[in-house]
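Form 7-S
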Amino acid sequence: MDLLKRGAKYIAVMAGLAVLIFLVIIFNNRMAEQRELIAQAEKIRAELNVLRATEAELNARIAYATSDAAVEEWAYQEARWVREGDQPVVPISPAQGTPVAVTVTTPEPVVYKNWQVWWALFFDDLPAVP
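Output:
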């Protein structure tokens, strides 16, 4: 009977150790998953801050674009409008005569005979032909 109690205790301890190891492995996996989720949350938080800054910049641009100052600047700069009392100036290029075409004469190409070309290739000099 004593042997039976020892065997039961041994089996209970081993089962308890197996359960404990299993729980430690599960805990470790959950901690690793939590670290990944925290890193993702930080990344998303940083991206959200960038997007909020972009939104604020765009809202400021919209507010300026719908203002009277922006319309006046556009009309003055882009559309070339003038205000009352302004003297518009339109630059005109000076009148010049029609440009004269310059003709360039090209020299007449020298035509060599086939044997003269070969002579020049072998001896680095063209033969003197009268």
